[in-house]
């Protein structure tokens, strides 16, 4: 009998719920992808470069023009001085970048601290590298990190800490005190940081995104990972990048070249044009999504759901304890099959499922879709 390297993994909850949404013709607020299209300039330039024959391999680390635009963006947003050629690596999505960063630093028996609820790619990548995930659970409704618990979880085998800010699925963003304590722990215990910042340009209520790139000292031990799919409504393109210190980038690229070698060449050129010509898209992203967050929340205000705070991302958490006694997985199945709205149960993001009755909705949808879904939920 074949022995699986990941025996406990099956079909992801995102695929399950999207499949059920299709089966029951439900409104799909489960999987985190925008309902609206990518910017016209991005699509036009992609077509332009395809027609111009820019269809062969790009340099493994990325098209130089795009690398430079990424470095310029980091400078503009975070006052970070990045050497584009040496520190920026373009990847086939942020998930590839996360996988490669983990493979770069994690060795057999190493431990990596992750915060639950956590993106579901972290643990498999750690296990495939021979490491062990050490899960620290964050609790509703605020999902704040207890750094004393983190300190106590660090052992001689701890190699890295994975942070995610703005945080999927809670919508929480790290504060200056979080970064301060993280830096102290990294320095004291000689740790690495993998900073998942794919929602970096989506923060609300004028709260800044505290990228690791803002702190020169912390960055020396960090991989900072982001996603063009989230920024430009183009998740199907699977385009992301990793910014790392030159010495770590060298090791990162050794593995990246044997995972995808290089990423979709015409898209890289189109993305470079987008960053160069329409940088205001990024500056307007927080306001764009805050309007959608507020629209959904306002239309749910008369429901029996308790709305939890969303400081960033395009997700909103709802406490349904006044609606149903079912656990969150059962409730989400009931919700899509009987009410016609697909959501994600929060327990699937945990190693040890909590008893919280919380579900996640994606509000990266057209306004009419959000209003229609809210009207259904208000009837429950």
From TrEMBL:
<protein>
    <submittedName>
        <fullName>Aminotransferase class I/II-fold pyridoxal phosphate-dependent enzyme</fullName>
    </submittedName>
</protein>
<dbReference type="InterPro" id="IPR015424">
    <property type="entry name" value="PyrdxlP-dep_Trfase"/>
</dbReference>
<dbReference type="InterPro" id="IPR015422">
    <property type="entry name" value="PyrdxlP-dep_Trfase_small"/>
</dbReference>
<dbReference type="InterPro" id="IPR051326">
    <property type="entry name" value="Kynurenine-oxoglutarate_AT"/>
</dbReference>
<dbReference type="GO" id="GO:0008483">
    <property type="term" value="F:transaminase activity"/>
</dbReference>
<dbReference type="Pfam" id="PF00155">
    <property type="entry name" value="Aminotran_1_2"/>
</dbReference>
<dbReference type="InterPro" id="IPR015421">
    <property type="entry name" value="PyrdxlP-dep_Trfase_major"/>
</dbReference>
<feature type="domain" description="Aminotransferase class I/classII large">
    <location>
        <begin position="27"/>
        <end position="374"/>
    </location>
</feature>
<keyword id="KW-0032">Aminotransferase</keyword>
<keyword id="KW-0808">Transferase</keyword>
<dbReference type="InterPro" id="IPR004839">
    <property type="entry name" value="Aminotransferase_I/II_large"/>
</dbReference>
<keyword id="KW-0663">Pyridoxal phosphate</keyword>
């Amino acid at each position: 009998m074949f022995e699986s390297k990941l025996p406990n993994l099956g079909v992801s909850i995102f695929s399950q719920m999207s499949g059920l949404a299709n089966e029951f013709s439900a409104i799909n607020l489960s999987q985190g992808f925008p309902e609206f299209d990518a910017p016209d300039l991005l699509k036009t330039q992609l077509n332009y470069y395809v027609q111009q024959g820019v269809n062969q391999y790009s340099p493994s680390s990325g098209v130089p023009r795009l690398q430079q635009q990424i470095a310029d963006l980091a400078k503009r947003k975070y006052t970070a001085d990045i050497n584009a050629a040496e520190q920026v690596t373009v990847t086939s999505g942020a998930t590839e970048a996360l996988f490669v960063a983990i493979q770069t630093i994690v060795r057999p028996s190493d431990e990596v601290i992750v915060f639950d609820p956590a993106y579901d790619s972290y643990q498999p990548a750690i296990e495939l590298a021979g490491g062990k995930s050490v899960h620290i659970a964050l609790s509703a409704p605020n999902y704040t990190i207890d750094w004393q618990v983190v300190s106590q979880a660090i052992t001689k085998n701890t190699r890295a800490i994975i942070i995610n800010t703005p945080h999927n699925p809670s919508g929480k963003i790290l504060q200056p005190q979080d970064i301060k304590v993280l830096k102290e722990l990294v320095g004291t215990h000689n740790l690495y940081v993998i900073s998942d910042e794919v929602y970096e340009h989506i923060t609300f209520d004028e709260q800044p995104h505290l990228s690791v790139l803002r702190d020169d000292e912390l960055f020396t031990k960090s991989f900072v990972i982001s996603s063009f799919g989230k920024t430009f409504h183009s998740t199907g393109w699977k385009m992301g990048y990793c910014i790392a210190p030159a010495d770590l980038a060298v090791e990162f690229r050794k593995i990246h070249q044997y995972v995808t070698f290089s990423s979709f060449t015409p898209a890289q050129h189109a993305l470079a044009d987008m960053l160069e010509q329409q940088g205001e898209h990024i500056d307007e992203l927080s306001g764009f999504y805050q309007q959608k967050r507020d629209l959904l929340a306002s239309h749910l205000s008369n429901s029996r759901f308790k709305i939890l705070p969303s400081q960033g991302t395009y997700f909103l958490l709802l406490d349904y304890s006044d609606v149903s006694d079912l656990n969150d997985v059962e409730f989400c199945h009931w919700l899509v099959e009987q009410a016609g709205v697909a959501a994600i149960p929060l327990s699937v993001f945990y190693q040890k499922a909590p008893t919280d009755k919380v579900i996640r909705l994606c509000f990266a949808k057209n306004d009419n879709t959000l209003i229609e879904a809210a009207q259904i939920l208000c009837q429950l």
